[in-house]
Amino acid sequence: MKTFGSKAKKTLGIVAIVAMIPAAGFASGRLAIEACEDLNEGDMVQFTTPRGDTVSGICRDLRGQLIAVPEGGFPGKHRGKGPGKRFARMARKLDLTEAQQEQVRTLLESERERVAPLRKQLAETREKIRQATLAETFDEAAVRALAVSQSEARVELAVSRARVKSQIHALLTPEQRERAKTFRSEGKGRHGHRPWR
Fold first, then answer.
1. What is the C-alpha to C-alpha distance for residues 83 and 161, in angstroms, rounded to an integer?
2. d(CA 191, CA 64)
3. Global pTM?
4. Residue 60: beta bridge partners?
5. How far apart are CA 49 and CA 44, in angstroms?
6. Residue 24: phi, psi to the nearest 5?
7. For the chain, is the Cβ count within 10 Å smaller at the N or the C terminus?
8. Largest alpha-carbon pair distance within the chain?
């Protein structure tokens, strides 16, 4: 059962989204939040707006609420603060060579392509669960099977993130690894931000 606090947090998150994307309206803000339910910050999602547009985005923590932020960010002040900006910051802080930067980009792109079907599966499963909750009769066995499928996909995504971090770590010099420890600790606690993704 949801508490008043969680309902208030969700409502405030929706209001924040609507304020940032006036054209999207209340329904799109609600969908942007629902798209990230049971996911982690940084997970890729897709949802369809009431107008029928498909929006691809990344789950981001905004004011304590995970919300699907459109790729490229929201119009205005949030633009330019996505994964590309984080990568540039990481490269600068760790003093990565051009060759290392290219290797890391290749790793990230390869892993992104590898997990794309998993992210799509998660989105589809989430929609099937949503539809099952709206059905005339509740099929617990079907929802349970979908939930298990979702959990398995999330495990694979967690392994994927760990694999990439390990591969990036292997590319670093001992000095860069020491800097990376500092870089990671700087990101902790700031809106749940994970600097390595």
1. 14
2. 7
3. 0.53
4. 67
5. 16
6. -75, -30
7. N
8. 61
